[in-house]
Design brief:
The complex is a heterodimer. In chain A, about 50% of the residues lie in helices and about 10% in strands. Chain A is an alpha+beta fold. Chain B is of the alpha/beta class. Chain B starts with 12 loop residues before the first helix and ends in a 5-residue tail after the last strand. Classes of the chains: A alpha+beta, B alpha/beta.
């Protein structure tokens, strides 16, 4: 891996959970605010930031409450009103 | 006035009734009393007040409840129900009847339960189970939410609806449990403990409203200890606003209802997240824009510095110098030419003034030797043939005698 992009996640944006994506996005914005990065890195940060914004927005847009039922130590989907 | 043997008091009915009323209403015991009995002759007219008779096997007591108190009644009163009623004795003067003006009614036995509640509360409190310092913080944005409740109750539906509306991003893990009856306490303990293995961010412990007996499992010592011992923070939403259970005290946050518990668990909603994303987005864009503008500024400052240091400038300056020099050379040359020409001028005038013609015309002559052209200005120079120049020409002569 290139040394300058050490902070970047190894995953592609699409693989990230909302939690991971928003944390990385916040990190990128903070880094752009506080640090003197080489311009090229900054542009890479910006591009990845744009992708993270799109990913987070899509996740929020399509979010559906996932409900699972715990029996012992195993989880199974819970269908409301079916029991 | 006829004297009497007995100093009897004569009163009107009203006066007597008023006197009795004052007697009863001045007795502190009668003004704050719990009375135990069975309800009969229950009447609920449209006025909203409630009338009934409380009786046991030897006596009966007329009771009434004013509308504001009746509206707050948690139990559904029925004839034959054994209750404890709290109130004060008053007198209804038009009928000469004393009655209990009731403000609270609870099913019989609840008083004993309440004493047990207080005893357990004091004991667990002294152990530090309810200490504010030991409360775990409630996460603002839980991704994994555990729920302990009955899987058939309205409480679960209310909570899921609330979570779906406020934070559909979350994952819910339901640990179903019975919530009333003797089996409830161990089931609740098991649900709380096995849910903790899944490491949820927060646990909602909830049950819909019911009588105090219905909610009693949430005062069970085992359940209260499980709540206090939970790794994940617990929000307790049992019953209604007015119901307090020991689980409420042991939990990290008390919610008045199951719905409120779900709301308190989702302090940040999906709308907040959407706003946060667009804020981050515009920060990202403006930061990058500023960064590029800054770089452009740096570049243009380099360009102007480079321009200043460029040899072009020196060449121009050298050109200028050259022009200056050539201008100065020209003007100095001109000056010298003028000087010379004025010298020539002066000399020519002088020359003109020396023109011998003028003298010749006055009778002088210029004599030169014929053979070598030497001007004869002394006698010794004169010999042989000479040329004599006068004003209008020359003639030759011979020197024949020197005087």
């Amino acid at each position: 891996m290139a040394k300058s992009s050490a902070k970047k996640s190894e995953k592609t944006v699409e693989e990230l959970s909302y939690e991971e994506a928003i944390a990385e996005l916040e990190g990128i914005v903070t880094s752009l605010e506080d640090e003197q990065n080489p311009l090229e890195d900054s542009m890479k940060f910006f591009e990845r930031g744009q992708a993270l914004v799109a990913h987070c927005s899509a996740l929020l847009e399509s979010a559906q409450l996932k409900v699972q039922k715990l029996s012992g130590e195993s989880l199974s989907p819970f269908e409301e009103g079916s029991e | 006035m006829q004297p009497t043997l007995f100093s009897s008091v004569h009163l009107t009915v009203s006066q007597l009734t008023l006197h009795i009323r004052k007697q009863l209403e001045n007795d502190p015991t009668l003004q704050d009393v719990w009375v135990e009995g069975e309800i009969s002759n229950l009447s609920k007219p449209n006025s909203g007040h409630i009338y009934f008779t409380l009786k046991d096997k030897n006596a009966s007591l007329r009771c009434m409840m004013w509308k504001p108190d009746a509206a707050r009644l948690r139990v559904n009163l029925q004839d034959g129900m054994a209750v404890e009623a709290h109130g004060r004795i008053t007198v209804y003067e038009p009928q000469g009847q004393y009655q209990l003006a009731v403000n609270l009614i609870q099913p019989k036995g609840e008083g004993a339960l309440y004493q047990e509640f207080l005893r357990l509360k004091a004991m667990l409190e002294s152990e530090g189970l309810f200490d504010p310092e030991s409360k775990r913080p409630i996460p603002q944005l839980p991704y994994k939410i555990g729920i302990v409740t009955s899987q058939t109750g309205a409480a679960l539906r209310d909570m899921l609806d609330t979570l779906r509306r406020r934070l559909p991003l979350a994952q819910v893990i339901l640990a179903p449990s019975s919530v009333q009856g003797v089996e409830a306490p161990p089931a609740l303990v098991n649900a709380i403990q096995s849910l903790n293995i899944q490491s949820p961010d927060v646990i909602l412990l909830a049950r819909g409203g019911g009588s105090i007996e219905d909610l009693w499992a949430f005062n069970d010592e085992r359940v209260v200890r499980a709540v206090a011992g939970s790794n994940a923070p617990v929000i307790c939403g049992v019953g209604h606003e007015t119901d307090f259970t020991l689980c409420d005290f042991a939990s990290d946050l008390r919610a008045p209802t199951p719905t409120a518990a779900a709301e308190l668990a989702t302090q940040i909603t999906i709308q907040d997240l959407q706003e946060a994303i667009s804020t981050l987005h515009s920060r990202l864009s403006s930061l990058t824009f500023n960064l590029l503008a800054e770089q452009k500024g740096v570049i243009s400052s380099f360009i102007s510095r480079l321009g200043y240091a460029s040899p072009e400038r020196r060449i121009q300056s050298d050109y200028q110098h050259l022009d200056e020099l050539s201008r100065r050379a020209f003007s100095s040359l001109m000056h010298r030419i003028q000087l010379q020409s004025s010298i020539v001028d002066g000399m020519s005038k002088h020359l003109l003034s020396l023109n011998p013609e003028g003298i010749l015309s006055r009778g002088y002559a210029i004599i030169t030797r014929k053979d070598d052209g030497v001007v004869v200005s002394k006698v010794s120079q004169a010999h042989g043939g000479i040329k004599v120049r006068v004003s209008d020409g020359e003639f030759e002569a011979l020197v024949n005698r020197k005087l």
